[in-house]
Design a protein that fits this description.
The protein is mainly α. The chain is about 75% helix and about 0% strand. α1 runs antiparallel to α9, α11 packs antiparallel against α18 and α12 packs parallel to α15.
Length: about 425
């Protein structure tokens, strides 16, 4: 990824890494804060559950569009400017959501929020990973994922302050201003290497050339492999989150814990999952200095398989520990995604292709929650055990997708002549295979 740097520019890699981690955290904060608001929106606007969740689906569906729009700006203009714009869009649309006078305005605001959300993730990943030294890319990749877990925790915890849903969304929307200020101090943005005459090309020719580059990259086997890995990891995440809710619901959540578990105990279980995810992602990021992504995805998933029955709630006493291990082993491997995706594609189209894989995987896997909800509502079906089986299947898919990574990495080692240790550290030029 070193070809993404600007020779002679005054870069601040630590500031850039912090800014991008805060940007991921702010997105998770603002996105997660909207989920509990759906029930309040349903009551305030007097609509059904399906109508109230349209805003959530509008956000998800606009994310790939945002990846293309802001990814194009990042690849052809400036990583830093693109991330600044994406954070600004999140702040503006978040405040617009909080002030929405009717459901139509709210849905439009959430759709535009998805546009910014789709741009923050890939732009933040490429901006931070291109500026840090080779051996630190795994650590930064793990920190990006850990920041998402922290943001998700903050988004859920903010409702415990007994604020109105509009106040919560407004407060969460101000948070992206922090990474925006850090991005501004991170130094000049990284720009794409372009031929001098490319700037004088007609707009139509530049569009056709960009489309050809993207089509060429998307038609190669490695694109489908990393997309499958991303999809399986996101399916693992959503299945674990869905199962956690189903397990707590099956136990029963009461105010004082006289029936099932108390609200404080349920909150503790959720917090342990986020802590485990953050810690697991950081550990995986450090291990990326020594081990390839395929190993760091497959091994934790294998270790987590025996924990699934306890995460389902077969023994409530073990649920807190199972929740911690679910975050650490079940989804901590997501710490490899940023560096895996950004290291797969060449610099001129890196942000766009990273964003396409990341957001397509997230959007497609989000449908898993809907499917599990439909199956769980069938008569005589135990929601917790159905979703427990789904978690096991997703972990097996993660293991299988990790094995798919072995071939392209072996081919890259053979072609470039780098060792397995050098490859794990990311000290090789990007490739478009």
């Amino acid at each position: 990824m070193t070809d993404g740097r600007i020779a002679g520019s005054k870069e601040r890699p630590v500031t850039a890494a912090l800014a991008c981690s805060f940007s991921w955290m702010s997105v998770a904060f603002a996105f997660t804060a909207y989920m509990p608001a759906v029930s309040h929106i349903k009551r305030e606007f007097a609509v059904g559950e399906a109508i109230a969740t349209i805003g959530l689906w509008a956000t998800l569906l606009m994310r790939p569009v945002g990846a293309l729009v802001f990814g194009h700006l990042a690849d052809t203009w400036s990583r830093r400017a693109s991330l600044l714009l994406a954070c600004s869009v999140i702040t503006i649309t978040g405040i617009a959501t909080a002030c929405a006078p009717n459901l139509v305005v709210l849905i439009l605001a959430r759709a535009m929020f998805g546009l910014g959300m789709g741009g923050v993730w890939p732009t933040g990943a490429t901006l931070s990973l291109e500026r840090v030294a080779d051996g630190w890319r795994g650590v930064v990749s793990g920190a990006l994922t850990a920041s998402w877990a922290v943001g998700a925790f903050l988004g859920s915890a903010l409702y415990s302050a007994e604020l109105e849903w509009r106040e919560v969304l407004a407060a969460a929307s101000v948070f992206p201003l922090v990474p925006a200020l850090l991005v501004w101090r991170a130094g000049p943005g990284v720009t794409s290497r372009r031929q001098p005459e490319s700037a004088r090309e007609p707009l139509r020719d530049r569009f056709d050339r960009a489309l050809r580059d993207l089509s060429r990259a998307a038609s190669r086997p490695t694109f489908f492999i990393v997309l499958a890995v991303t999809l399986s990891v996101f399916c693992g995440y959503y299945s674990l989150v869905s199962l956690r809710s189903a397990t707590l619901e099956s136990m029963g959540v009461s105010k004082d814990g006289s029936v099932g578990v108390s609200k404080e105990q349920a909150a503790f279980v959720r917090v342990l999952f986020d802590i485990g995810m953050a810690g697991g992602a950081l550990v995986i990021g450090v291990l990326l200095r020594f081990l390839p992504p395929s190993t760091l995805i497959a091994v934790p998933s294998i270790l987590f398989l025996p924990v699934i029955p306890f995460y389902v709630g077969v023994d409530p006493a073990w649920l807190p520990l199972a929740s911690l291990l679910a975050g650490m082993l079940g989804i901590g491997c997501s710490g490899v995604l940023a560096t895996m995706l950004a290291g797969t594609f060449p610099e001129p189209i890196r942000t766009r292709m990273t964003g396409i894989c990341f957001n397509l995987g997230a959007v497609a896997s989000a449908g898993l929650i809907l499917g599990l909800a439909v199956v769980s509502e069938m008569p005589g079906v135990s929601a917790a055990w159905v979703q427990g089986v789904a978690v096991g299947v997703c972990q097996i898919l993660m293991i299988a997708s990790a094995l798919l990574l072995l071939r392209p990495y072996a081919q890259r080692r053979k072609r470039t002549g780098v060792s397995a240790e050098e490859e794990a550290q990311g000290s090789y030029p990007p490739s478009a295979d």
